[in-house]
Amino acid sequence: MESTLRIPLGTKLIETFGWVPGQGYPRLDRHLRRLAHSAAILGFRCDIPAIRAALATYESDMQMRCRLTLACDGRMEVTRSPMSPRKPFWMIQIGPQRLHAADPWLRHKTTNRALYDDARAALPAGVDELIFLNERDELCEGTITNIFVKTQTGEMLTPPLSSGCLPGVYRQEQLDSGACREAVLRLADLEAAHWIGVGNALRGAICAKFQP
């Protein structure tokens, strides 16, 4: 499938996932499906069996953070580093930048993410994550996470892709299992929530505290 997007030179697809001793790569199939989907839309060469075979040779007795990048010509690179200690909760704030819900790049995890990287590099002291709003004041996502809100009635909600967010692997897993559903969310929903969480495939669910 030929992409209608103008792809900046050097853009690569990204998948970030964990390695767990005795378990291998949790959610790897979901990561590779998302990679293949984006590759097809953007016109990247993507040999999933070769990628899977290359990943299969790895062994470690430590829990690791793995970052896979795929270039347009199909070249793959994997870098790994030890997982950082897990914090009991993350402090979150609303980021000053706005996302545009119709931006097609929000649907793909690529190296074309300067807004996210810049926002993360400038996190205020004591803040672990920034949550973005779109031009309609709807909650979108964080710099490296999707957001989840449990209402006072116990229903778990997460913003729909139409608000402007990455189809996160952990997010989709929760939707597929029925643990949450999509709903347009705004700042008032965050303020009234019974519980707030942020999450991604690498870290799973992380309890969050909202700092206005």
Question: What keyword list fits this structure?
Answer:
212 residues, alpha/beta, D-amino Acid Aminotransferase, Chain A, domain 1, 2 domains, 8-stranded mixed sheet, 3-stranded antiparallel sheet, 11 strands, 24% helix, globular
Describe this protein's structure.
There is one protein chain. The chain is an alpha/beta fold. It folds into two domains: 70 residues, D-amino Acid Aminotransferase, Chain A, domain 1, CATH 3.30.470.10; 121 residues, D-amino Acid Aminotransferase, subunit A, domain 2 (D-amino Acid Aminotransferase, Chain A, domain 2). Helices cover 24% and strands 30% of the residues. The protein has six helices and eleven strands. An eight-stranded mixed beta sheet has the order 6-5-4-11-10-7-8-9. A hairpin with a 3-residue loop joins β10 and β11. The longest helix is centred in the first third of the chain and has 15 residues. It is globular. The termini are far apart. The model has no long low-confidence stretch (mean pLDDT 96).
Looking at the structure, what is the overall shape?
Answer: globular
Number of helices in the DSSP assignment: 6
Domain count, please report it: 2
Topology-level CATH name of the largest domain: D-amino Acid Aminotransferase, Chain A, domain 2
CATH superfamily label of the largest domain: D-amino Acid Aminotransferase, subunit A, domain 2
Helix content: 10-25%
- Structural class of the secondary structure composition? alpha/beta
CATH class group of the largest domain: Alpha Beta
Mean pLDDT across every amino acid position: 96
CATH architecture of the largest domain: Alpha-Beta Barrel
- Along the chain, the helix and strand elements come as EHHEEEHEEEEHHEHEE
Low-confidence stretches: none
Q: Provide the spatial order of strands within the biggest beta sheet.
A: 6-5-4-11-10-7-8-9
Number of strands: 11
Strand content: 25-35%
Main beta sheet strand tally, sense and closure: 8 strands, mixed
Cα-atom Rg, whole angstroms?
17 Å
